[in-house]
Amino acid sequence: MNQRMMILCCTLFLIIWGQSASLAEAWRQAFNSNPPASPVKLIFIHHSTGENWLTDDKGGLGLTLNKNNYFVSDTNYGWGPEGIGDRTDIGNWWEWFNGPASSTYLAALYQESNQSGDFYSRLGTDPGGENNVIMFKSCFPNSYLSGQPSDPATTGANPLRGQDASSEYMTVANAKGIYNDLLKYFAARQDKLFILITSPPQVANDTDAAHAANARGLSNWLAKDWLRGYAYRNVAVFDFYNVLTSNGGSTNTTDLGLDAGNHHRFRNGAIQHVQSVANNMAAYPSDEWDSHPNPVGNVKATAEYIDLLNIYYNCYKGTGDCPGASGFKVDGVWKMTGGESVYFQTYQTGEAICLVSKDGKTITAYYASKMTGMVFEGGDIPTSGRSSMLRLTFSSASQATGIRTNVSTGQQDNLTLGMDSTASVNTVSDGIWQATADRSQNFYLQRYTNGGAILLLSNDAQTCEVFYDPAATPNHIAGTGMFTAQPVSIDFTITNSTTGIIVRKPGSGSASTWPVTRFSTAAADVN
Predict the structure, then answer these.
(1) pLDDT per residue over 145-159, tens digit each?
(2) What is the pLDDT of residues 127-178, one digit of tens each?
(3) Contact between 365 and 352 (Cβ < 8 Å)
(4) Each residue of 32-55: b (16+ CB within 10 Å) or e?
C-alpha cells in the first residue's frame, strides 16, 4: 500500500466528514414513480398483442397511461412509409433504427399523433410537438429462438438484419446483436426515451423446452445485461415476458401483488426483477393454441409496468433516481493518462465517491448520489461553490474514459483511465464507522485484493491517522500508524456487521477505546 493511496484515503474521509456527517443522506435521490407533471407524448409500436394490452377492456394500458398524463399514439399493421408498421420482429428493429431508410421511418414516427383504432382511451388534447417516449415490442413468434440461452451477441454484419421471426437466422446471438446495434442510434438521440418491451412467452403448442429456455435467456439478458455499460439515461426495458410466465394457479387467476411469482415491478421502494416460478411458457394464454396474453395477464402487466414507466421517465428527465445494472467491479485506485490518481469507492445505498489527485497532497473529491449503469457523474465537494464536474464511463474492469468540466469557464478535459489497484470488499465490515458516543470520531475501512486493509481515523475532519494491516482477517484489523511522528497502533475487533470495538494505543500514554457503529456499508458490486 503506497503513500499516495494512504493520502487519498485520508483526504476522502476528511472531505466527507468535513462537509456533514450525513452528506449521503442529504444528497440521496429516491426512485420517483410519480406521473409527469404535464402531458407527455408517447407512441407505442406494436401488433395484436400490444393492441390487446392497450385496449380499455382487455389490458387497460391505454386508460392507465391516460391517467398518468401520457398522450398516447400507436402504430399497427399498415402504418408508415413503405408499410414499415407491418414489420416489428427483432430483425426489423435494425430497419427502423439503423437501416438506410431509418431517418424516413423515424421522422414519421416522431410526428405521429393518431391512434390505429378507437380501442383505447387517451387524453383529449394533443400537447403538440414530437413524441418523447418511444415504446416498441415484438410479438410472441420472436420468443422462438435457436442457439443457447447464454450465447454471446453477434458482432459486425448480422444476418438477422431486416429478417422476420421465421428466419433461419433467428438465434439468441443474432437477436442480442440486433439489440446492441440499436444502442448506437439511441445514444445519438438522448432527446428521446426508448423503452423496449420484451416479447411475450408462447404456449406449449407453439414451442418446446429448449426454445422457451432461449426466450428466457434473451429476456433476462435484456433486463439485466443489455444496458450494462450504456452511458445514458434514455433507454429502459420492461420484461413483459417474465411478468407473463407466472399466475395465481390458473390462466384466469392473477398473482399480481403476491410475493411469489415472476415479476418486474416497483415495490417497497425497490425495483424487483424476480422469478420464483420455474416456467418459461405462457401463464396467461388466450387458450392452449393461442399465445396472445389474456386480459388477466395484460392487467397484471399494466399494473407492474406503470410505476416502472414513471421511474424511467423521471430518471430520463433527471427528476428521480435511475435503475442500475449490476456490472463489473470498479472500486479501487485508477491511474489517469497524465499522471493523476483516481480513487473510487461505491456504497450499498448507491452513492459513489471519486477522488482525483496529481501529487498525493492536493485532491478533488466528486460525489454521485447514484451510479447510472456503469457511469459515474457528479460534482466536486468544495467547502463553498462547485468548481468542476466529472463524468466517468467504465467500459471494462480495467478501462474507463471521462470528461472533466470547469464550471466557471466551460473548459473540458478528456480523460483516459486504467485500473491500478482493485478493492476487495468484505460487506460484513468495510465502510465508514463512527464512535457510538461521539459522531465526530470517524473510521474508514477498506480492503484490497492483496489481502491488506487500511483503517483511517479522524476526530476533527482536518487531521487523520492511517493504519495498514497487510494480513487483516474478516473480523479483525491491527496495524501501526503509517505517517505518525510517534509510534501508535490500532486494534479493531468487528463484533458483527454493525458494531465493533476500536482501541488506539500510543507509544506512551493511555489507550483510547471506542465502541463503534457502522454508518455506511461498502458495496460488493458497482450498484
Answers:
(1) 999 999 999 999 999
(2) 999 999 999 999 999 999 999 999 999 999 999 999 999 999 999 999 999 9
(3) no
(4) bbebbeebbbbbbbbbebbbbbbb
